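Ticket #4471: structure output looks truncated?

Reporter: J.K.
Steps to reproduce: submitted the chain below (221 residues) through the standard prediction queue, then opened the result file.
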Amino acid sequence: MNTFLRSIIIFVLLTSSNAFADNPQILGWEDLVPKQAPLENPLSHLDTELRLDIEYLASIRYWQKTGQISEVDTEYEYGIELEHKLKKSKVDFEPLITKYDAFLDEIEHRNKLVVSSLEAKLVRIPGYALPLETSGAAVTEFLLVPTIGACIHTPVPPANQMVFVHFSKARELKGLFEPVWVTGRMKIEQQKRSVVYSDGEGGVESAYTIQGANIEPYTGW
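Returned output as attached by the reporter:
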C-alpha cells in the first residue's frame, strides 16, 4: 500500500471516530437519577385518615425542631391535639413517626445522588429555561428544569433534577420557562443559586452543570 493511500485511510478513520465521539448522548431527566430499588412509605398500610394524621404530626415536630414554628403557633397547638387523638385511639404512633422520618431522610439523600458516569460527557437534554437574572433581556446562564413552574409555583425539584447552564454568548429568552434543547459537556458540580419564588426569594441547589452550552428552541411539547 503506497504512502498516499495509507494517509487517506488513516484520515478517514480518525475523522470518523472523532465524529462518533462528538455525537452527544441524548438524556431524559430520569437519566440523571441513579437506578435504585423503589422506596415504600412505611405508613402506606394505614387507612388514609390515620396516615395523614401521623404524617402531619411528624411535619409539625420537624418544623418545631428546625425553628420554623414555636409553642405559640397554631400548628403547635394542632400537634398537641393530634397526639391526644392518637393516644385516645390507642395508636402506638411514636415508632411509626420514627420510621416515617427515616423514610423522608432517605428521600432527601437520594435526591442528591448523581450518575457519576455522566461526568465530562457530551450530552443533549431538553427542559425549561428558568433565568436567574431578570434585569436584562439577554442572559448567559439559567437553570434547566424538567417542568413548567419548577422553583416558582411548585416545590423545588431535587438537586439531581436541575442543571445549571452557562453559555458564553448572551441569549434572549422568551420569558420564563422557555422550552429548549441544551447541548454541552456535563459536569457533576453542586451549584447554589438564588431564585425568586411566587412568595419570596430562596436558594436552590443543582447537582449538574453544563458550561459553554449550545441552546436551541424545543418545539416538541
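Triage note (M.O.): checked the attachment and the full C-alpha cell line is present. Helices lie at 3-21, 48-65, 74-88, 93-110.
Status: closed, working as intended.
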